[in-house]
Amino acid sequence: MDVTDLRVALFTGNYNYVRDGANQALNRLVGYLLKRGASVRIYSPRTEKPAFPSVGKVINIPAIPLPGRAEYRAPVGLPLSARRDLKQFAPNMVHVASPEVLGHRAISWARNHDLPVVASVHTRFETYPRYYGLTFLEPLVLALLRRFYRRCDAIFAPSESMAQLLREQRMSYDVGIWTRGVDKEIFSPSRRDMEWRRSHGIADDEVAIGYLGRLVMEKGLDVFSDTVETLRRRGVKHRVLVVGEGPARDWFEKRLPDAAFVGHQMGPDLGRALASADLFFNPSVTETFGNVTLEAMASGLPVVAARATGSASLVREGVTGQLVAPGAIGSFADAIQRYIEDTDARRSAGEAGLRLSDRYGWDEVNQALVDSYLRIIRHRSTGAQPPRGPFG
Known about the structure:
GO terms for molecular function: glycosyltransferase activity. The chain is an alpha/beta fold and 392 residues long.
Protein backbone atom coordinates (compact mmCIF):
# COMPACT_ATOMS: atom_id res chain seq x y z
CA MET A 1 0.00 0.00 0.00
CA ASP A 2 1.23 3.51 -0.79
CA VAL A 3 -0.04 7.07 -0.67
CA THR A 4 -2.15 6.67 -3.83
CA ASP A 5 -4.24 4.05 -2.02
CA LEU A 6 -5.12 6.40 0.81
CA ARG A 7 -8.72 7.55 1.17
CA VAL A 8 -8.75 10.03 4.05
CA ALA A 9 -11.88 11.41 5.71
CA LEU A 10 -10.92 14.57 7.62
CA PHE A 11 -13.30 15.87 10.29
CA THR A 12 -12.83 19.35 11.75
CA GLY A 13 -15.02 22.00 13.34
CA ASN A 14 -13.30 24.73 11.33
CA TYR A 15 -11.62 24.30 7.98
CA ASN A 16 -11.81 27.74 6.40
CA TYR A 17 -14.22 30.12 8.13
CA VAL A 18 -11.57 31.44 10.55
CA ARG A 19 -7.99 31.76 9.43
CA ASP A 20 -5.56 30.38 11.99
CA GLY A 21 -2.50 28.15 12.10
CA ALA A 22 -4.46 24.94 12.59
CA ASN A 23 -6.68 25.49 9.56
CA GLN A 24 -3.78 26.47 7.37
CA ALA A 25 -1.91 23.33 8.41
CA LEU A 26 -4.93 21.15 7.59
CA ASN A 27 -5.35 22.81 4.19
CA ARG A 28 -1.67 22.27 3.41
CA LEU A 29 -1.99 18.62 4.43
CA VAL A 30 -4.96 18.11 2.11
CA GLY A 31 -3.11 19.85 -0.71
CA TYR A 32 -0.11 17.58 -0.22
CA LEU A 33 -2.25 14.42 -0.11
CA LEU A 34 -4.04 15.38 -3.31
CA LYS A 35 -0.73 16.23 -5.00
CA ARG A 36 0.59 12.78 -4.09
CA GLY A 37 -2.47 11.03 -5.56
CA ALA A 38 -4.47 10.30 -2.39
CA SER A 39 -8.23 10.85 -2.13
CA VAL A 40 -9.51 13.21 0.58
CA ARG A 41 -12.92 14.34 1.75
CA ILE A 42 -13.34 17.07 4.39
CA TYR A 43 -16.36 17.14 6.72
CA SER A 44 -16.70 20.57 8.30
CA PRO A 45 -19.09 23.50 8.69
CA ARG A 46 -19.06 25.75 5.63
CA THR A 47 -19.76 29.45 5.32
CA GLU A 48 -20.80 31.78 2.52
CA LYS A 49 -17.81 34.00 3.28
CA PRO A 50 -14.77 31.84 4.08
CA ALA A 51 -11.74 33.53 5.61
CA PHE A 52 -9.56 32.05 2.86
CA PRO A 53 -9.98 29.68 -0.12
CA SER A 54 -9.94 26.08 1.08
CA VAL A 55 -8.36 23.03 -0.55
CA GLY A 56 -10.35 19.91 -1.42
CA LYS A 57 -14.02 18.95 -1.39
CA VAL A 58 -15.83 20.04 1.79
CA ILE A 59 -19.05 18.35 2.89
CA ASN A 60 -21.08 20.77 4.99
CA ILE A 61 -21.82 19.89 8.61
CA PRO A 62 -24.59 21.86 10.40
CA ALA A 63 -23.26 24.10 13.15
CA ILE A 64 -24.32 26.81 15.56
CA PRO A 65 -22.36 29.91 16.69
CA LEU A 66 -20.50 29.50 19.97
CA PRO A 67 -21.97 31.71 22.73
CA GLY A 68 -19.83 34.79 23.17
CA ARG A 69 -17.54 33.79 20.29
CA ALA A 70 -19.79 33.98 17.24
CA GLU A 71 -16.84 33.84 14.85
CA TYR A 72 -16.51 30.15 15.77
CA ARG A 73 -19.18 27.54 15.08
CA ALA A 74 -19.91 24.30 16.92
CA PRO A 75 -20.92 21.30 14.75
CA VAL A 76 -24.09 19.68 16.05
CA GLY A 77 -23.26 16.11 15.00
CA LEU A 78 -22.81 13.85 11.99
CA PRO A 79 -25.99 14.17 9.90
CA LEU A 80 -27.46 11.48 7.68
CA SER A 81 -26.31 13.31 4.54
CA ALA A 82 -22.70 13.14 5.72
CA ARG A 83 -23.06 9.45 6.63
CA ARG A 84 -24.34 8.75 3.13
CA ASP A 85 -21.40 10.58 1.65
CA LEU A 86 -19.00 8.63 3.87
CA LYS A 87 -20.49 5.35 2.67
CA GLN A 88 -20.00 6.45 -0.95
CA PHE A 89 -16.47 7.78 -0.33
CA ALA A 90 -15.40 4.62 1.57
CA PRO A 91 -12.40 5.99 3.48
CA ASN A 92 -9.63 3.75 4.83
CA MET A 93 -8.33 6.38 7.26
CA VAL A 94 -10.28 8.77 9.49
CA HIS A 95 -8.53 11.90 10.80
CA VAL A 96 -10.21 14.07 13.46
CA ALA A 97 -8.82 17.52 14.15
CA SER A 98 -11.03 18.92 16.92
CA PRO A 99 -12.39 17.30 20.10
CA GLU A 100 -16.01 18.34 19.88
CA VAL A 101 -19.32 16.67 18.99
CA LEU A 102 -18.41 16.09 15.33
CA GLY A 103 -15.08 14.57 16.32
CA HIS A 104 -16.73 12.18 18.79
CA ARG A 105 -19.32 11.13 16.21
CA ALA A 106 -16.59 10.57 13.62
CA ILE A 107 -14.61 8.35 16.01
CA SER A 108 -17.72 6.33 16.79
CA TRP A 109 -18.48 5.96 13.08
CA ALA A 110 -14.91 4.81 12.37
CA ARG A 111 -14.95 2.26 15.20
CA ASN A 112 -18.33 0.92 14.10
CA HIS A 113 -16.86 0.38 10.61
CA ASP A 114 -13.58 -1.06 11.92
CA LEU A 115 -11.53 1.78 10.44
CA PRO A 116 -8.36 3.29 11.90
CA VAL A 117 -8.77 6.78 13.31
CA VAL A 118 -6.12 9.32 14.28
CA ALA A 119 -6.37 12.75 15.90
CA SER A 120 -4.18 15.80 15.47
CA VAL A 121 -3.80 18.13 18.45
CA HIS A 122 -3.84 21.81 17.53
CA THR A 123 -4.32 23.75 20.74
CA ARG A 124 -4.32 23.30 24.49
CA PHE A 125 -8.04 23.45 25.12
CA GLU A 126 -7.57 22.61 28.81
CA THR A 127 -5.91 26.00 29.35
CA TYR A 128 -8.80 28.05 27.94
CA PRO A 129 -10.98 28.18 31.09
CA ARG A 130 -8.34 30.15 33.00
CA TYR A 131 -8.75 33.09 30.60
CA TYR A 132 -12.48 33.34 31.30
CA GLY A 133 -12.49 32.99 35.10
CA LEU A 134 -13.35 29.27 34.97
CA THR A 135 -10.09 27.68 36.10
CA PHE A 136 -12.00 25.15 38.24
CA LEU A 137 -13.18 23.51 34.98
CA GLU A 138 -9.67 22.53 33.82
CA PRO A 139 -9.71 19.03 35.42
CA LEU A 140 -13.06 18.32 33.76
CA VAL A 141 -11.78 19.48 30.37
CA LEU A 142 -8.69 17.28 30.78
CA ALA A 143 -10.89 14.26 31.54
CA LEU A 144 -13.05 14.92 28.47
CA LEU A 145 -10.00 15.31 26.25
CA ARG A 146 -8.50 12.09 27.63
CA ARG A 147 -11.71 10.22 26.80
CA PHE A 148 -11.67 11.63 23.27
CA TYR A 149 -8.04 10.90 22.42
CA ARG A 150 -7.95 7.44 23.98
CA ARG A 151 -10.60 6.31 21.51
CA CYS A 152 -8.15 6.89 18.63
CA ASP A 153 -5.49 4.54 17.27
CA ALA A 154 -2.91 7.33 17.59
CA ILE A 155 -2.67 11.05 18.17
CA PHE A 156 -0.23 13.55 16.69
CA ALA A 157 1.29 16.59 18.35
CA PRO A 158 3.04 19.38 16.44
CA SER A 159 6.08 19.51 18.73
CA GLU A 160 8.07 17.18 20.96
CA SER A 161 7.33 19.34 23.99
CA MET A 162 3.59 18.98 23.33
CA ALA A 163 3.94 15.25 22.68
CA GLN A 164 5.67 14.81 26.02
CA LEU A 165 2.90 16.75 27.78
CA LEU A 166 0.27 14.53 26.15
CA ARG A 167 2.13 11.45 27.38
CA GLU A 168 2.29 12.88 30.89
CA GLN A 169 -1.44 13.63 30.73
CA ARG A 170 -2.05 9.99 29.66
CA MET A 171 -3.94 11.11 26.57
CA SER A 172 -2.90 8.18 24.37
CA TYR A 173 -0.73 5.10 24.13
CA ASP A 174 0.61 6.17 20.71
CA VAL A 175 1.72 9.82 20.45
CA GLY A 176 3.46 10.84 17.24
CA ILE A 177 4.75 14.09 15.79
CA TRP A 178 3.17 16.03 12.94
CA THR A 179 5.09 19.25 13.12
CA ARG A 180 4.56 22.39 11.02
CA GLY A 181 6.35 23.98 8.12
CA VAL A 182 6.92 27.54 7.01
CA ASP A 183 6.49 29.15 3.59
CA LYS A 184 9.89 30.69 2.90
CA GLU A 185 8.53 32.61 -0.09
CA ILE A 186 6.27 34.59 2.25
CA PHE A 187 8.30 34.73 5.45
CA SER A 188 11.75 36.12 4.80
CA PRO A 189 13.92 39.05 5.99
CA SER A 190 13.82 40.28 2.40
CA ARG A 191 10.17 41.26 2.97
CA ARG A 192 11.20 44.02 5.37
CA ASP A 193 9.85 47.37 4.14
CA MET A 194 10.96 50.56 5.89
CA GLU A 195 8.58 52.72 3.89
CA TRP A 196 5.67 50.53 5.00
CA ARG A 197 6.81 50.94 8.62
CA ARG A 198 6.94 54.69 8.26
CA SER A 199 3.42 54.70 6.81
CA HIS A 200 2.25 53.22 10.11
CA GLY A 201 4.07 55.77 12.21
CA ILE A 202 7.11 53.67 13.16
CA ALA A 203 10.34 55.66 12.95
CA ASP A 204 13.50 54.12 11.52
CA ASP A 205 15.27 54.36 14.88
CA GLU A 206 12.41 52.77 16.85
CA VAL A 207 12.57 49.08 17.73
CA ALA A 208 9.22 47.52 16.86
CA ILE A 209 7.93 44.72 19.09
CA GLY A 210 5.80 42.48 16.91
CA TYR A 211 2.62 40.59 17.74
CA LEU A 212 1.00 38.26 15.21
CA GLY A 213 -2.15 36.25 15.80
CA ARG A 214 -5.83 36.26 16.63
CA LEU A 215 -6.76 39.00 19.08
CA VAL A 216 -8.32 36.77 21.72
CA MET A 217 -7.55 36.70 25.43
CA GLU A 218 -6.22 33.14 25.43
CA LYS A 219 -3.25 34.36 23.36
CA GLY A 220 -1.91 36.12 26.44
CA LEU A 221 -2.91 39.67 25.49
CA ASP A 222 -2.97 40.68 29.16
CA VAL A 223 0.63 39.53 29.66
CA PHE A 224 1.69 41.24 26.43
CA SER A 225 0.15 44.58 27.38
CA ASP A 226 1.39 44.44 30.98
CA THR A 227 4.92 43.79 29.72
CA VAL A 228 4.74 46.72 27.33
CA GLU A 229 3.51 48.94 30.18
CA THR A 230 6.52 47.82 32.25
CA LEU A 231 8.85 48.84 29.43
CA ARG A 232 7.11 52.22 29.23
CA ARG A 233 7.53 52.82 32.96
CA ARG A 234 11.23 51.97 32.65
CA GLY A 235 11.61 54.55 29.89
CA VAL A 236 12.66 51.96 27.28
CA LYS A 237 12.04 53.44 23.83
CA HIS A 238 10.01 51.14 21.57
CA ARG A 239 6.89 50.78 19.41
CA VAL A 240 4.43 47.91 19.18
CA LEU A 241 3.28 46.48 15.84
CA VAL A 242 0.12 44.36 16.08
CA VAL A 243 -0.82 42.14 13.13
CA GLY A 244 -4.19 40.41 13.38
CA GLU A 245 -7.87 40.79 14.17
CA GLY A 246 -10.25 39.34 16.73
CA PRO A 247 -12.96 40.08 19.28
CA ALA A 248 -10.48 41.47 21.83
CA ARG A 249 -9.14 44.18 19.51
CA ASP A 250 -10.94 47.06 21.25
CA TRP A 251 -9.64 45.90 24.63
CA PHE A 252 -6.10 45.51 23.28
CA GLU A 253 -6.13 48.92 21.59
CA LYS A 254 -7.13 50.59 24.86
CA ARG A 255 -4.27 48.84 26.64
CA LEU A 256 -1.80 49.79 23.88
CA PRO A 257 -2.85 53.28 22.75
CA ASP A 258 0.47 54.01 21.00
CA ALA A 259 0.68 50.74 19.07
CA ALA A 260 0.33 50.39 15.30
CA PHE A 261 -2.62 48.07 14.61
CA VAL A 262 -2.44 46.98 10.97
CA GLY A 263 -5.26 44.44 11.01
CA HIS A 264 -5.49 41.09 9.26
CA GLN A 265 -2.78 40.50 6.65
CA MET A 266 -2.39 37.67 4.15
CA GLY A 267 0.28 36.26 1.84
CA PRO A 268 3.10 38.65 0.90
CA ASP A 269 1.46 41.45 2.92
CA LEU A 270 1.68 39.28 6.02
CA GLY A 271 5.31 38.50 5.33
CA ARG A 272 6.04 42.20 4.91
CA ALA A 273 4.30 43.13 8.15
CA LEU A 274 6.14 40.52 10.20
CA ALA A 275 9.57 41.18 8.70
CA SER A 276 9.09 44.90 9.32
CA ALA A 277 9.13 44.31 13.09
CA ASP A 278 12.44 44.08 14.95
CA LEU A 279 11.64 41.36 17.48
CA PHE A 280 8.75 39.04 18.18
CA PHE A 281 6.93 38.63 21.50
CA ASN A 282 4.72 35.57 22.07
CA PRO A 283 3.49 35.19 25.69
CA SER A 284 0.84 32.57 24.86
CA VAL A 285 0.77 29.18 26.58
CA THR A 286 -2.11 27.70 24.54
CA GLU A 287 -0.23 26.80 21.34
CA THR A 288 0.85 23.23 20.72
CA PHE A 289 3.42 24.35 18.15
CA GLY A 290 3.49 28.09 17.60
CA ASN A 291 3.30 28.70 13.85
CA VAL A 292 3.74 32.41 14.43
CA THR A 293 6.96 31.80 16.34
CA LEU A 294 8.42 29.83 13.43
CA GLU A 295 7.22 32.47 10.95
CA ALA A 296 8.95 35.17 13.00
CA MET A 297 12.19 33.16 13.01
CA ALA A 298 11.95 32.70 9.23
CA SER A 299 11.56 36.49 9.02
CA GLY A 300 14.86 36.96 10.83
CA LEU A 301 13.44 38.15 14.17
CA PRO A 302 14.65 37.21 17.66
CA VAL A 303 11.83 35.70 19.71
CA VAL A 304 10.84 36.28 23.32
CA ALA A 305 8.27 33.65 24.25
CA ALA A 306 6.68 31.88 27.18
CA ARG A 307 8.42 28.68 28.21
CA ALA A 308 5.50 26.49 27.19
CA THR A 309 4.60 23.78 24.72
CA GLY A 310 5.37 24.78 21.16
CA SER A 311 7.76 27.66 21.66
CA ALA A 312 9.93 25.52 23.96
CA SER A 313 10.59 23.19 21.02
CA LEU A 314 11.41 26.03 18.62
CA VAL A 315 13.30 28.72 20.52
CA ARG A 316 16.93 27.97 21.42
CA GLU A 317 17.38 29.96 24.60
CA GLY A 318 20.16 32.51 24.34
CA VAL A 319 20.67 31.63 20.67
CA THR A 320 17.47 32.41 18.72
CA GLY A 321 15.72 34.24 21.55
CA GLN A 322 14.66 33.94 25.16
CA LEU A 323 12.15 31.68 26.95
CA VAL A 324 10.49 33.12 30.04
CA ALA A 325 8.28 31.56 32.70
CA PRO A 326 4.61 32.06 31.71
CA GLY A 327 3.15 35.25 33.14
CA ALA A 328 6.48 36.58 34.47
CA ILE A 329 5.97 40.20 33.42
CA GLY A 330 9.27 41.53 34.77
CA SER A 331 11.31 38.75 33.15
CA PHE A 332 9.56 39.26 29.81
CA ALA A 333 10.37 42.97 30.03
CA ASP A 334 14.02 42.20 30.89
CA ALA A 335 14.42 39.94 27.85
CA ILE A 336 12.76 42.40 25.48
CA GLN A 337 14.70 45.34 26.89
CA ARG A 338 17.96 43.54 26.21
CA TYR A 339 17.09 43.05 22.53
CA ILE A 340 15.89 46.64 22.23
CA GLU A 341 19.10 48.06 23.65
CA ASP A 342 21.62 45.57 22.20
CA THR A 343 21.60 45.74 18.41
CA ASP A 344 24.25 43.03 18.04
CA ALA A 345 22.32 40.58 20.24
CA ARG A 346 19.15 41.30 18.30
CA ARG A 347 20.86 40.73 14.95
CA SER A 348 22.65 37.58 16.10
CA ALA A 349 19.49 35.94 17.48
CA GLY A 350 17.55 36.84 14.35
CA GLU A 351 20.17 35.28 12.09
CA ALA A 352 20.27 32.12 14.22
CA GLY A 353 16.49 31.81 14.06
CA LEU A 354 16.56 32.21 10.29
CA ARG A 355 19.05 29.34 9.98
CA LEU A 356 17.01 27.08 12.24
CA SER A 357 13.79 27.78 10.31
CA ASP A 358 15.36 26.22 7.20
CA ARG A 359 14.70 22.78 8.73
CA TYR A 360 10.93 23.13 8.45
CA GLY A 361 9.72 22.34 4.93
CA TRP A 362 6.01 21.60 4.45
CA ASP A 363 6.46 18.60 2.12
CA GLU A 364 8.80 16.84 4.55
CA VAL A 365 6.47 17.61 7.46
CA ASN A 366 3.37 16.26 5.72
CA GLN A 367 5.12 13.16 4.34
CA ALA A 368 5.94 12.17 7.92
CA LEU A 369 2.20 12.12 8.71
CA VAL A 370 1.45 10.17 5.52
CA ASP A 371 4.02 7.57 6.58
CA SER A 372 2.23 7.31 9.93
CA TYR A 373 -1.15 6.84 8.20
CA LEU A 374 0.32 3.93 6.23
CA ARG A 375 1.95 2.42 9.33
CA ILE A 376 -1.33 2.45 11.24
CA ILE A 377 -3.28 0.96 8.32
CA ARG A 378 -0.69 -1.83 7.97
CA HIS A 379 -0.89 -2.47 11.70
CA ARG A 380 -4.67 -2.78 11.52
CA SER A 381 -4.44 -5.08 8.48
CA THR A 382 -2.65 -7.66 10.63
CA GLY A 383 -5.75 -7.94 12.80
CA ALA A 384 -4.58 -5.61 15.56
CA GLN A 385 -7.29 -3.63 17.33
CA PRO A 386 -7.17 0.01 18.41
CA PRO A 387 -6.03 0.61 21.98
CA ARG A 388 -8.86 0.49 24.50
CA GLY A 389 -8.19 2.20 27.78
CA PRO A 390 -10.61 2.54 30.70
CA PHE A 391 -12.69 4.98 28.62
CA GLY A 392 -12.73 2.77 25.46
